[in-house]
Amino acid sequence: MEKYPTPESLVAADKEEIVPIIRHLGLQNQRASTYQMYAKIWLEDPPTKGKRYPVRGYPNPESGRDVKKGEILGDEDERDAWEIGHMTQGPYAIDSWRIFCRDRLRGEADSWNGEGRGEGFQPEWMRVLPEDKELRAYLRWMWLKEGFEWDPFTGDKEAARPQLMRAAMEGRIAWDDQGGMRILDEPISANSEDSDDELA
Q1: HSE-CB of 75 using CA atoms within 13 angstroms
Q2: How do residues 3-36 score in pLDDT, each as one tens digit?
Q3: What is the pTM of this model?
Q4: Residue numbers of the domain that contains 26
Q5: Are residues 113 and 53 in the same domain?
Q6: Cα dist. 77→50, 51, 81 in Å?
Q7: Maximum distance among all alpha carbons in the chain?
Q8: What is the pLDDT of residues 134-176, one digit of tens each?
């Protein structure tokens, strides 16, 4: 970010200078090309409110099948489509976009968590069902802050148990490899292994 803070600087960069910076991530040559491709698309056709592109199979298996090739949907169209659908087809990228960026782009809120909107507004992140374990863990934590236990597979939620809320306030929550929560006996800084309960 410091060396290439804008899409323009990333597009103009020598790929061979990008590669060593991201070598620790693996697949550095492919990643460098991908980063520059995304930056180029962003400059030529940036995500725009009112221009949505279908992504076949996202967020549901049948999504995008009722949209013609090359068709761009407006906001009044109820079919599934996304402002970054012309840039990526990856669920992780679209989930992240929806969680952290979409409301602001669309002018729905001042930030990703509904800032600037009154009571009753539902931020976009509340409608996302990510497959990525870290996004699942993050949204489970966000829902817990709202007072709910949330199922990342179904989207169902129920009022959080007092035991769980107490553990969260005391720093006794850890995450498993599926984004599930564990209640620890001690705060995570002291003991991150022992647990007295596990949530599916």
Answers
A1: 8
A2: 999 999 999 999 999 999 999 999 999 999 999 9
A3: 0.82
A4: 1-44
A5: yes
A6: 10, 10, 9
A7: 55
A8: 999 999 999 999 999 999 999 999 999 999 888 888 888 887 7
SS3 call for 127:
helix
Same domain? For 33 and 103 the reply is no
* % of the chain beyond a pLDDT of 90: 76
Residue 74, burial from CB neighbour count under 10 angstroms (0-12, 13-18, 19+): exposed
Instruction: Identify which of 37, 47, 46, 44 has the alpha carbon closest to the alpha carbon of residue 11.
Output: 37
List Cβ neighbours of 12 (8 Å cut-off, separation of 6 or more): none
- Token output for 94: 């679209």
| Residue 158: strand pairing partners | 149
Handedness of CA 70, 73, 78, 80 (dihedral sign): positive
Residues 52 and 119 in one domain: yes
Which of 109, 128, 147 is the endpoint of a domain? 128
DSSP at 154: T
- Partner residues linked to 148 by β-bridges: 159
Instruction: Please give the tally of structural domains in the chain.
Output: 3
